[in-house]
Amino acid sequence: SQQGEEDPQALSIQEGENATMNCSYKTSINNLQWYRQNSGRGLVHLILIRSNEREKHSGRLRVTLDTSKKSSSLLITASRAADTASYFCATGAGSYQLTFGKGTKLSVIP
Amino acid sequence: DTAVSQTPKYLVTQMGNDKSIKCEQNLGHDTMYWYKQDSKKFLKIMFSYNNKELIINETVPNRFSPKSPDKAHLNLHINSLELGDSAVYFCASSQGPSGSHEQYFGPGTRLTVT
């Protein structure tokens, strides 16, 4: 069953601007992960944040997690044209299953 | 070196045929998965294997049969292909339960059933 729900469905920004994508989920989780998918390619893991963490950074990426609101956000700072892709959140509950959302399609205009 | 590889990359076939997609990972991971991504980009788990044993078998028609000859391989065989099977199929692997570990994805196999 679908767990994560990204918002917005599509986002278009100018190069150099920041991009923020949100993810909401419904049940308790062990961790939440963000993935990127370039057109015609497989998914690439970006960040994993555990349920006892509130914020995590990786390069230009910043992820927050609010378990009380069952939501997460992915911030990409100083965006580049190469960041154009679909971004998915996925929730894990400690089992062998990750449940993916429908994704946010990000377009960065040079 | 490719971490998770799939063959073929593209597969065009007619309804009623039987086809297989192969997946191999060289990461030494214990767990492998098959996902189906539909035309709206929704990614849905189909199967999960841990140490060659089936862990998850979501509501998938029994025309789909995964086979794991060893920990590094997880193949997907599809019988009596239907138009609705057209999608991109992704293989993935993880070190342990994906609820706690990141997954590594293959490049995908685009299946078109005519």
Key descriptive features of the protein:
heterodimer, A: 110 residues, mainly beta, six-stranded mixed beta sheet, five-stranded antiparallel beta sheet, 11 strands, 56% strand, B: 114 residues, globular
What does this structure look like?
The complex is a heterodimer of chains A (110) and B (114). Chain A has 110 residues and is mainly beta. Chain A has strands at residues 5-7, 10-14, 19-24, 31-37, 43-50, 55-58, 61-66, 71-76, 85-92, 98-100, 104-109. In chain A, strands 2, 4, 5, 9, 10 and 11 form a six-stranded mixed sheet that branches. Chain A has a five-stranded antiparallel sheet with strand order 1-3-8-7-6, with no helix packed on it. In chain A, strand 4 and strand 5 (43-50) form a beta hairpin. Chain A is globular. The termini of chain A are far apart. Chain B has 114 residues and is an all-beta fold. Chain B has strands at 4-7, 10-13, 19-25, 31-37, 43-50, 53-57, 64-70, 73-78, 87-94, 104-105, 109-113. In chain B, the strands form two sheets. In chain B, strands 2, 4, 5, 6, 9, 10 and 11 form a seven-stranded mixed sheet that branches. In chain B, a hairpin with a 5-residue loop joins strand 4 (31-37) and strand 5. Chain B is globular and about 35 Å long. Chain B starts with a strand and ends with a strand. The mean pLDDT of chain B is 92. The A-B interface holds A 2, 30-31, 33, 35, 37, 40-45, 48, 86, 88, 92-100, 102-103 and B 4, 31, 40-45, 48, 50, 55-56, 90, 92, 97-108.
Helix content of chain B: under 10%
Could you tell me the number of beta strands of chain A? Answer: 11
Oligomeric description of these chains: heterodimer
Order of helices and strands of chain A: EEEEEEEEEEE
